[in-house]
Amino acid sequence: MRAAIDALAAALRAGLDPEADPPRSVVPVRHGQLLLMPAEWGRYAGVKIATVAPGNPSRGLSRIQGQYLLLDGETLTPLEVLDAVALTAVRTAAVSAVAVDALAEPDAARLVVFGAGPQARSHVEALRLVRPVSEIVVVGRDPGRARAFAAAVGGRVGSPSDVAGADLVACCTTACEPLFDGALLAPHATVVAVGSHEPEAREVDDETVRRSTVAVESRATALRESGDVIQAVRAGACSPGDLVGLAAAVRGEVKAAPDAPRLFKSVGMAWEDLVIAARSYEARESA
Question: Which of 87, 100, 107, 153 has the most crowded Cβ, counting Cβ within 10 A?
Fold first, then answer.
């Protein structure tokens, strides 16, 4: 996770432009979606072929499955095939940690996590690497899973109202409706929302967006795929011009308002998979 966070931040500082990423191809099928996510950066190209099957957890299978093909950027020769589930679990949390490191207060210690699945677990790991997290509150739909996850990470089970005392809030769910009341957020709080890449789904409400400095991986992608952003723009809670690009935040070109919450909305992008796959490949090649 530490290597993934460092690789993403280094690529953004080196000039990677998330706006140049090709759009994700999403093909609906009877039991979910087929996703195709190509990218090119530096000496590499690559493509993730993934599936999203909402009914899989009830069968004991992963909701997201797939493979990542890493290619040499010049010859387009295949170099390596990686497990897309493992790659996605790492990259999603790693990009959240990059955003938190750029936006959140240095002493942010109290974390509220919505969700109790693989992304919630990865986010606890990643955010602990960039901020001094000492208290964790878990909010989940399934009480048993929430208790088990809270015990595993040394936290406790709470409720949506716990965001009122949070320094950090991580939304790692498949929710289609807002998880908490944005009016409860403290002015110094930082929220990351990673649960969906669909215009009709959202984890945060208009009030969260209205109050916050809103950072996104790519403006164009957020306005195409992020229900949290699209619906808030439609409601007049923000305008497209208000959105802050993650690359600009990482490079220190823009700063969050000091007296307002910060929101990072991630939809997951192909450049993130490519950067981490390349770092993984180079680490094995040099071993």
Answer: 100
